[in-house]
C-alpha cells in the first residue's frame, strides 16, 4: 500500500473516470471488503471537484472510494518503507 489513513493524496490512475486524475482528496479510513460496488482500498473526502458519469461531487461533500493503485500520497518526505510489515521478512536461501 502506498497510502495511509490521514494522507493527502492525488488521483493518478483513474482509468474509469480519467477527468479525475490530478484531483485531491484526504484518506480517512480503510474501505471494508464489499462495502462499495467497486473494488476499493480507501474511503476518502474530496478536496477537489470530482466527476463520475456526468455527476459532480464538490469538496467536503460526500465520500469517495478509491483503490490504492489509483492514488499517490502527498508527503514532505518519502517516509519509511513498510514493505516488510505487509510482506514479511525474506526467508534465507539455503545451499542445495
In short:
The protein has 96 residues and is mainly beta.
Q: Name the strands of the widest sheet in spatial order.
A: 6-3-2-1-7
Number of domains: 1
Please describe the biggest sheet, giving its number of strands, its sense, and whether it closes into a barrel: 5 strands, antiparallel
Count of separate DSSP helical elements: 1
How does the overall form come out from the CA principal axes? globular
Order of helices and strands: EEEEEEEH
- The termini sit apart by 34 Å
Low-confidence segments: none
Please give the radius of gyration in angstroms: 16 Å
User: What share of residues are in beta strands?
Assistant: 25-35%
Structural class: mainly beta
Portion of residues within helices = under 10%
Q: Quick one: how many beta strands?
A: 7
Topology, please?
Layout: E1 8-11, E2 24-30, E3 42-46, E4 50-52, E5 55-57, E6 64-66, E7 71-74, H1 83-87
Antiparallel strand pairs: 1-2, 1-7, 2-3, 3-6, 4-5
Describe the structure.
The chain has 96 residues and is mostly beta strands. The protein has one domain (8-76). The protein has one helix at residues 83-87, and strands at residues 8-11, 24-30, 42-46, 50-52, 55-57, 64-66, 71-74. The strands form two sheets. It has a five-stranded antiparallel β-sheet, with no helix packed on it. The chain is globular.
Amino acid at each position: 500500500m502506498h497510502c495511509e489513513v490521514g494522507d493527502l493524496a492525488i488521483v493518478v490512475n483513474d482509468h474509469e473516470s480519467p477527468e479525475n486524475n490530478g484531483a485531491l482528496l484526504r484518506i480517512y479510513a480503510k474501505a471494508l471488503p464489499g462495502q462499495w460496488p467497486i473494488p476499493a482500498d480507501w474511503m476518502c473526502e474530496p478536496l477537489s471537484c470530482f466527476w463520475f458519469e456526468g455527476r459532480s461531487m464538490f469538496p467536503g461533500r460526500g465520500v469517495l472510494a478509491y483503490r490504492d493503485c489509483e492514488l499517490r500520497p502527498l508527503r514532505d518526505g518519502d517516509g519509511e518503507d513498510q514493505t516488510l510489515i505487509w510482506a514479511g521478512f525474506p526467508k534465507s536461501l539455503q545451499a542445495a
